[in-house]
Amino acid sequence: MARLEQVITNIVDIFLDYAEDEGKKHKLNKDELKKVLEQEIQSPELKDKINAGDIEEAMEMLDKNHDGEVNFREFCRCVSVLAKSYYQKKTGRGGKKGKGKEQGDEPED
């Protein structure tokens, strides 16, 4: 399987594995979300972006429709935020400061 296909199937499979533990099918409740964050994210840099220790805050950030659960669309937003964070760490690009300009692009005096 191609790498991108692997990533896509992994995201779907991870969501479904945890979403079917308890509560409504195809949605993550607080306990399920906490398990995902604790077990599937090991990098300290990414853990800092969504704090599994403060699950209330994570739910608030992810649960855009305020139904008390995270659906697949909301979960994908979470994955996207983490991917962007990792990209920024690897490239040094994409931060909020100087948006649209790369470091070193400023004219020298």
UniProtKB/TrEMBL annotation:
CDD domains linked: S-100
Query: Could you tell me where the Basic and acidic residues compositional bias lies?
Result: 100-109
Using the record, list the residue span of the signal peptide; answer none if the entry has no such feature. Answer: none
Renumbered to this chain, the Basic residues biased-composition regions fall at 90-99
Spans traversing the lipid bilayer = none
**Which keywords does UniProt give here?**
Calcium, Metal-binding
A GO cellular-component term linked to this record:
extracellular space
EF-hand domain location is 50-85
Q: What are the boundaries of the region Disordered?
A: 89-109
Q: Which SUPFAM superfamilies match?
A: EF-hand
Q: Which Pfam families match?
A: EF-hand_1, S_100
Q: Which GO MF terms does the UniProt record name?
A: calcium ion binding; calcium-dependent protein binding; transition metal ion binding
Q: Which Gene3D superfamilies match?
A: EF-hand
Q: Which InterPro entries match?
A: EF-hand-dom_pair, EF_Hand_1_Ca_BS, EF_hand_dom, S-100_dom, S100_Ca-bd_sub
Name-wise, this protein is EF-hand domain-containing protein
Species name for this entry? Answer: Dicentrarchus labrax
From the broadest rank down, the organism's phylogenetic lineage runs:
Eukaryota, Metazoa, Chordata, Craniata, Vertebrata
Q: Which gene encodes it?
A: s100w
